[in-house]
Amino acid sequence: MMLPDPAATGLARVRKIEGAALGLRTPAFAPEEGAGDLLEVSLGPHHPSTHGVFRMDVVLDGERIVRLKPVFGYLHRNHEKLGEGTSYLGSMPYTDRLDYLNSMTNNWAYALAVEKLAGIPVTERAEYVRVILAELSRLLNHTCLAGFLMQDCGCSGTPLMYAFREREKILDLFESLSGSRMMCNFQRFGGCRVDPSAEWLAATRTLVDGYGAFLDEFEALLSGNEIVMARTQGVGRLPAALAVNAGVTGPMLRASGVGHDLRKVDGYGVYPRFNFRVPIGRDGDVYDRYMVRMLEMRESISILDQALRGLPGGPILDPKAKQRGLRPKAGEAYGRIEGPKGEIGFFLVSDGTGNPTRYRVRAPSFVNLTILEDLCLGHSVADAVIILGSIDIVLGEVDR
Amino acid sequence: MESPEALRDRLLARFPGVSVELVPNGSPSGQVSLRISPAGLREVARFLRDDAALALDQCSNVTGLDSPDREVVETVKESQPGAPGGPPVVIERKQTRIEPGHLEVVYHLYSVARRHGPVILRARTGNRTDAVTLPSLTPVWRSCEFQEREVFDLYGVVFEGHPDLRRILMWDAFAGHPMRKDYVEPDDYEWEPTPHGEVLAKARRHYPSAAAPGAVQPSP
Amino acid sequence: MSDAPTDASSPGPLSAEERDELRRHGILLTSVQELYNWGRSHSVWPLNFGLACCAIEMIAASMAKFDIARFGSEVFRPSPRQADLIIVSGTVTKKMAPHVVRLWNQMPEPKYCIAMGACAISGGPFKQGYNVLKGIDRFIPVDIYIPGCPPRPEALLHGLVQLQEKIRQQPLRGPDAPRHLRSDLACDATVPELGAEDIEPPFSPELWKPPTLVRPDKA
Amino acid sequence: MLGKGLLQGLAVTAKNLVGSYHDPARYVTQEYPEVQPKLPEAYRNFPFLVSETADDPMGTLRCVACQICEKECPPQCIYIEKSKDKKPDATGKAQIYPAVFAIDTAVCMSCQICVEVCPFDAIKMDQEFAIAATDRFGGLLLNREQLAKPNAYYHQIHPTEAAEVDERLAAERRAAEEKARLAAAAKAAAPKPAVPAAAAAAAPGAARPAPAGSTAPAASAPVDPVPPPAPRPPSP
Question: Which domains does chain B carry?
Fold first, then answer.
């Protein structure tokens, strides 16, 4: 299989302290046939480490997993059916509730799809504001993910507590701009709903300037921690070829060494104007997935810095761009962006009326779960928990 | 990447027995798709994945579409013999015809290696009742596994060759296919304080008389 | 638990003002009921159970900024057997409903339920969906409803304070006594089954009556 | 060296532990019920109806029951019934008013679309969040008496936005008055009392013989005018 050359510009490998070099034993289980009696265990839908209402039907041989079937649908709240009965504008607040940690990027993906469908141009300032909010959202998501992943590893409390402390700072920014902490409903077709004020931009600048220091501290706590390394290195290896074939996207794919980032590949919005690197992993294990996200946050800080400096003036939303009563010509469009969890896309089919006839959400964490069984086979239940944690799922978009 | 027309011609030359049809798109997005006859879908898919120039190694999105039976009103002109010796009389007659519905599956293909896309494949079922089988593309792209299960669950398309075709979002005992346009929800209506639109129509069906028996007023 | 006066001749319970007056003079008065409820109300242990978006705000409420530990409720128990409170934080789908009810049945009395967010109260924005339960109160008796989509962590804390107040007001005897101290009330809820079209029954008949209301300010 | 990472991590936690005693950045707890949160001006929770005065909220609602918000509300949590009669609004002009206006806060998702689509600045977002109730319908279904809050309250919670709205409404009022004055002058000058069709279309509020000093909210045409909703069929 052909992959872009990692040495090509814009790719950064994760730096990795090998746990084995420090004398740590990394788990390397292999499935053995018929070693003992099989035990069937249902993990979830109420389980503290399934990140919501997710269920795994696991067949165990002793501690080893010999079969794992994910069971979905416990949060299937008919998002797509509702979207077919709602106007184009009315679906925007519903997209907030897909991946409820990252309403800003969901909004953007949906707005992008509608803009493609109806041919709506986006104002320059709005493109920059979208980048700023998407990167803030990425910081928020990856910080929380690191916290949750460590919770799954057994570092109970502390990393999550620090992660949520920083999350609150970003949420304060979202709230003072959009009016809501989590459900921002911020993007509009052709721009954004509110123009950020100078004070807001100054507050964002302060946060961005201070975030690197927080990451340093967070990494000092976790990245070199021997327990974390022993727990995560060599666990849940995902080969690059399988990752691509299984439609895995986002940090999951990049941790397997594939430098595929839609910000570079599609170059949507104004991302081609920014100078940033795409971190990739080497082994595709849980540690690499964690590390790729840490490095991505560093790149996000750099993008935020550039976007805040380059933010142009002008209108945030074209007043002629129609929001209410939008009736795109009959046709279809698939729009996708690089969300914090991977490729989030919306496939919209219009028949010329005010509601889409088909409103499909391509949810990254749903497709990323395809390889869950492959990653978990041969590992123990405790490893399955951190493998699931490293996939970074949000049930709101898995089940929709 | 080659144009959709060139790709269609190449596919037609390569797979003589397979019908490949270009589906236009009226939207400014210009995402034109290719409709493949179900029998050749998997061969075409495998070719698209393995072809060196295309290398469509990632199937990003799999979607179902439902087109229910439509009533089409057509005006038919018929010439009938008029009065003896005279010219034939042309009579216009309105004729309603039921256009049979179908289910359709849409695949969005991208190339990670070559960084291009999308190439959009479509395949139609024969109807919406008994001829709903399509070949599964899970053997070609693993990413189809859960998404095809979802299409099976919500639309009722049966994917032949799928390794594990079960319901995915609804529970196993569930009977209907809820994303179909003609799906009727279970009649679980109850009083809702802010009814309008469809909810109001449901309310009328349930409470035909204005004051339901035993109507009480909540304390404001 | 002989706190309530049994015959009419005995003096009634002291009013709050009288209590305060005595407290100012250094006299602390309490009753078994009061002490018992005071203790219970400050150690409401929630079930570590999140459903959807609201669960994130519930986690946020337990983190440093909002710090639910100040109310004695930071001990999120992973097992229902050790929990006093279920915070239904998010959309309850029909597929999930049997599990939620089963969790509720597994909790020991005295137990309480907070419906957090629009979805848990009424199905919220998703109420028209074919797989969404229109409110958890169809199967579980809800003590506090917290509207919002999602409610701020402060709103959750406000709801928790209201629940604590409710616990403090609970008499231990008489017709208003809580469920677990009465023999005439069932503690277990009906667990629905997943049927071919809908959950069966669609609501718990002994707990919930479908409203047949007219508009409040109409008619 | 094995153990270096652990020691580093312990140093971080120690720094945070000690820091929480003197560094406000590391001690972030807000003592909620005692200390109320500082809500940003943009914060939104549930909608409320703006009335001009606090003394007579029902008589001075800005809402004219046009039902656009009811139609656009994504979760359909608004219910409006138009009045059969007209009542003078704050400026004395006869207007249809909402005989029933209810919002089910148990369904509302705080998306603010009702505010965006309202052409009359009649519905705005409230910031009250401590509204937990023990009764589903009694506590969470709000009728128009509970929803009405005076303009002064709006100024209090969203000062910048409210000032802009007031300014815009005043400007529209002035423009409408000007148009009415011109129309009246043209009418007086013309021999036949015929209102030009163009003027009538441009200022429907002014085209009607309105009393002096009347506002014409109908003249504040929305950016995207929609046909008025069809008369509502009798509800069950």
Answer: 4-68+103-181 (3.30.460.80)
